[in-house]
Each structure stands twice: as structure tokens, then as C-alpha cells.
Amino acid sequence: MAIAAAAVIVPLGLLFFISGLVVNLIQAVCFVLIRPLSKSNYRKINKVVAELLWLELIWLVDWWAGVKIKVFADHESFNLMGKEHALVIANHRSDIDWLVGWVLAQRSGCLGNSLGIMKKSSKFLPVIGWSMWFSEYLFLERSWAKDENTLKASLQRLKDFPQPFWLALFVEGTRFTEAKLLAAQKYATSQGLPIPRNVLIPRTKGFVSAVSHMRSFVPAIYDMTVAIPKSSPSPTMLRLFKGQSSVVQLHIKRHLMKELPETDEAVAQWCKDLFVEKDNLLDKHIAGDTFSDQPSQDIGRPIKSLLVVTSWACLVAYGALKFLQWSSLLSSWKGIALSAFVLAIVTILMHILILFTQSERSTPAKVAPVKPKNDRETSEAKRDKQL
User: Fold this and answer.
1) What is the largest CA-CA distance in the chain?
2) Does residue 76 surpass a pLDDT of 50?
3) What is the pLDDT of residue 370?
């Protein structure tokens, strides 16, 4: 991490981790004292508490880096967002697709109830991972043999969610890179499948399970297609912390859950066909550098995240000043050394967070070995054993 970048990242990191630990503490107290009495009330309170942390990241996008998110959707679908439960599926194009989804959830009024299916290791990330666990994110090991029952139980627990929620699922299973695209193209060629150009081949086990167990209480699927214009650099967490802007364009299409096929095999094929359509849509985007088939929707830039970050900054600064006055921490070499140690820990944690989001470090999608075309069904079944 460069010195200039660290000069910005460390203060922001201190603010995020100190305020985040406060949020985690409140969540833990509510989990122990309120959840056993009323899971519904716990979820309503946690929505508000979690947003106090998530809004800091929204501020990073909206006010610090000034990332421009352009949404393309029909008016009816756009107006329903945040008013109903929804399963959200998207291509995984950039390092901050999840954060773009949070921005849209915040605009729709359900940021604190936006959930995701994450790698099991994610819940051990200090502050952010712990908050996700308290917020009932779904954590999987990415092995279908181990995850099938876990996913089923986790999805069923959402049935009595008291407020509209979004559950995000990146069905490609990993973030897009050219190396992963080449592997997907090789697999598609060997199996006689449509050869992808802008997306990876979806891994449908998790999607099929989600549809099967949520069909009765989730009315809609939001099909989101993420694209980065040719004139814009791809957004990353490091660019956000440096205050460097990007442009992200988001195409949204709403599908009624009741209109999906009934059998698991047909639902899996529906998902695969959807990604073929998504690939074609991205071809058109590359040609025109925009999504021209849907009207553009204004999502604005609410001041709420700015107010939250300003409030946290004042509280943390006041608390730190009072603590330093009380402890005389910087009046001795031992205190200075302890302070330097804390700053080093924050720097390391922020570095881990940035590395965790980088696409080149994400787990590659496992692709079955090349087999003759007449073994296509067997090969696809083996490939889908991973989420």
C-alpha cells in the first residue's frame, strides 16, 4: 500500500473499525437480549443498526469517490424495488458489484435488509463480516455436498422476515476475469454450449435451490446486468479509498417468480438461457456504451450517508480526545508504541479488506475437464456440484 494511499486509508479505516465495533457490540447485545424474545423485533432493530455501518461504505461511493451509478429499468419495476421480497441475480463484473447493489438497496429503502450468499470465510472479517453474520447473511463453503442442507435451512429461515429484503446471488460463482472467461469458453466449446463473451457460465445449483425454497414467499427476481463503460476505469476498493471516481451502469429486469418453470432442471436451464441473453445484452452495451432498451432512472445522491459519517467522525474524534486526555497515552514511549501498534493493525486490516475484494484474488470457478460432447450431461452435473 503506497504511503500516499495509506495517509487516506488509515484515518478512514480507524473511523470504520471503531464505529463498526460499536455497531457490532449493539448487534451482539440485541442478539442476546432481544432475538430470543422476538426474532421479528430483532430484525427490525438490526436493520437500523446495520445501516449505521453500511452507510459509511455508501458514503465512500457517493461522496468520497463520487462514483456515478446509472440505472436502466422500466418505471413499474423500478417503483416496486424495496416494496417486496426479491431474489437478486447479477453478473459479477467488478470488485465492488456488491457495494453497487448496496447503493441501490439504500435508494430503495432496504439497505439494512439486503442479504447475500457469501463464502464461509467472509464472516470472520473483523467488523464487516461480523455485522453480516448478525444480519443473517448466508455463509457457504462452496461445496454442494456440504452446503445443500445449510442453504435449504438458511433460505427457509427467511420466510418470516418482517420487512422487504433482497437476497443477492452471483450465480457465476466468482468475479469475472479474462483468465476465467478463457476457461469458461474452453468448457463451452467442449460441451457444445453457447460460447460466452462477456459473462461466465452460471453455476445453477444454488439458484435452483433458492427458487425452490423461496418461490412461495418471494414474488420477484431482479435480473441485474452490470457494465463498465469503455471510457471509465473499473472501480475497486482501493480507487474508492483514494477518492477516484468511476462509472457503473446497471440494467434491471424484473421477473415474476411464479412464471418460472416448475422442475429443477427447467429452472437451471432458465438461468443458463438468462445468461445467454445477458451476454447478448452486454454485446449491445459494448457497441453503444449504454443500455438503450430501458429508460434511465434517477437514483439521486441522498444526504443520509454524509450525515451518518459526519456524526460518527465527531463522536469518534470527541471520544478519542477525551481518552487521550484521561490516559495521557502519548506522554510516554510505551503509549506512543501502543498507538503505533494500533495504527499498524488498522492498516493491515484495511489491506486485507482491499485484497479480499480484488477479482484477481477471488476463487476461480471450477470447470470440469474437457470431455467428448456425448458426455455433456455427466460433465455438466459434475461441474454443478460446486455452487
Assistant:
1) 76
2) yes
3) 41
